[in-house]
Amino acid sequence: MQNSSEPDWPALIRPEIRAIETSGIVEVFDYGRNKQGLIPLWVGEGDLPTPGFIAEAAKASIDRGETFYTYQAGVPELRAAISAYMSAHYGAGLGPERFFVTIGGMHALDIAVKMTVGPGEEALVLAPAWPNFAGALACNGGRAVFVELEATPAWRLDPARLEAAVTPRTRAILFNSPANPTGYVASRAEIEATLAIARRHGLWIIADEIYGRLVYGGARAPSFHDIMTADDKILFVQTLSKNWAMTGWRIGWLEAPAALGPVIENLIQYSTSGVPVPTQRAATVAITQGEPFLAGAVARLKQCRDIMTEGLAATGRVELAAPEGAFYLFPRILGHDDSRELAFRLIDEAGIGAAPGFAFGPGGEGRLRLCFARAPEQMREATRRLSAWLAR
Ligand SMILES: Cc1ncc(COP(=O)(O)O)c(C=O)c1O
Q1: Three-class secondary structure of residue 92 per DSSP
Q2: Residues with CB under 6 A from ligand 1
Q3: Whose alpha carbon is nearest atom 1 of ligand 1?
Q4: pTM
Q5: Does any domain span residue 67?
Q6: Which of 5, 58, 89, 243 is most exposed, with the fewest beta carbons within 10 Å of its own?
């Protein structure tokens, strides 16, 4: 390549794509990632490695030579396993033809958005919200319209507020429960009210229920599966990432009416062309044999949630509700309204990596997201550091 002056590359690409915002977590993470002794609570994953029996299935698959292209929708064995799992936990009648294997929940979300919300159109998003919802919409030319949950301090949805945000451009409600970052778990009544709004206005629901099994009361969170009928326009985003400590494997699924199969297979073909077979073998084993691991993980999470919630509440310097699901605390830190500044200070002064609340949109500023999916001893130490810093 000959030497020439560097073009202004970003100026040469489509402005809409250039304008997509970077997640507010990244800047803080980049600043602190190499700090010695820091306890990282900013990322949405735990510290447990993928269980050996899951990893072994992928190794065996590679050894068998399963290194070729495969079904766009996923290998039949995995789709059958997902169908059996979903039918066992969410109700009968969820056949394999409803499930499409994707590169993580993120890819499932992207496909769901692509099918329902186009350029110039809107989706309602409960806020505070995982930044990737607005990101996925922006990447597809759509726009997130945030509907704030009420922090009372337990998080609750006011359905009237949700309905008031519907405009002629609204195409979908992006409904995440249990929620990242708030730990909000929608009640059955809130889900019913949301479905009623979607029906009244002809909207799609994109239900992100990836934390549905990570709840601290009951076997799972209320789901749209509990109330939907076959003609409701609902797409479900799911993932193996959190339940089975598989964030780096990049595998999840989209659940949709079977008749959308050819369309979804096209979208998979023209984006990733499918999920590696060894990864799908690992996922099949996780789903069929992973219940004991999941039960242990939830018990550990509950212990960590309690350590941190009780420890921080005792400082009198925070306002927080114990999360009902997922694995994040999202406290308001009294007297610190600038969450970006606070996150930077905690890195330097407390040895804690926290995600700044402003990154999660309306209702997030003044808060921190703290992921508690780590060993209980680490959570005790993190709580001690935070409490000491808050007491200064
Ligand atoms: C609410 C929510 N949905 C979807 C995902 C996507 O997970 P993955 O792409 O790792 O499967 C995440 C990950 O943090 C999440 O928090």
Answers
A1: coil
A2: 44, 104-106, 130, 176, 180, 208, 210, 237, 239, 241, 247, 252
A3: 180
A4: 0.96
A5: yes
A6: 5
Structure tokens at 114: 């692509």
Q: In a mutational test of the pocket of ligand 1, which residue from 206, 211, 241 has the highest number of ligand atoms less than 8 Å from its CB?
A: 241
Per-residue model confidence (pLDDT) at position 276: 98
What residue numbers bound the domain in which 385 lies? 10-50+292-390
Q: How far is the CA of 106 from the centre of ligand 1 (A)?
A: 6
Query: Looking at 271, 289, 307, which one is the last position of a domain?
Result: 289
Alpha carbon nearest to ligand 1 atom 14, residue: 44
From CA 69, how far away is CA 28, in angstroms rounded?
Answer: 39
Q: Is pLDDT above 90 for 5?
A: no
Q: Please, which pLDDT band fits residue 251 given cuts at 50, 70 and 90? A: very high
Atom of ligand 1 nearest to the CA of 252: 11
- With the most atoms of ligand 1 within 8 angstroms of its CB, the residue from 25, 109, 126, 130 to mutate is 130
pLDDT in tens, 351-362: 999 999 999 999
Give the Å distance between the CA of 110 and the centre of ligand 1: 11
As for how many domains the chain has, the answer is 2
Q: Specify the residue for token string 């690409």.
A: 13
Ligand 1 centre distance from Cα of residue 105 (Å): 5
Beta-ladder partners of 144: 123
Give me the sign of the Cα torsion angle 138, 27, 185, 154: negative
Integer-rounded Cα radius of gyration of the chain: 21
- Assess contact for 246 and 50: CB atoms under 8 A: yes
Kindly state whether residues 101 and 204 are assigned to the same domain. Answer: yes
* C-alpha–C-alpha distance, residues 311 and 329, integer Å: 12
Cα separation of 268 and 72, whole Å? 6
Query: Residue 6 has what DSSP assignment?
Result: P
When pLDDT is averaged across residues 87-98 and rounded to a whole number, the result is: 94
**Residues contacting residue 160 through CB under 8 Å, at least 6 positions apart:** none
DSSP H stretches of helix in 91-185? 104-116, 131-139, 159-164
Top mutation candidate among 109, 137, 180 for ligand 1, by most atoms within 8 Å of CB:
180
Residue 53, token pair as written in the block: 């029996």
Q: Can you read off the two tokens belonging to residue 291?
A: 């219940």
What residue's CA is closest to ligand 1, atom 7?
105
223, 255, 289 — which closes off a domain? 289
Q: Looking at ligand 1, which atom is closest to the CA of residue 247? A: 10
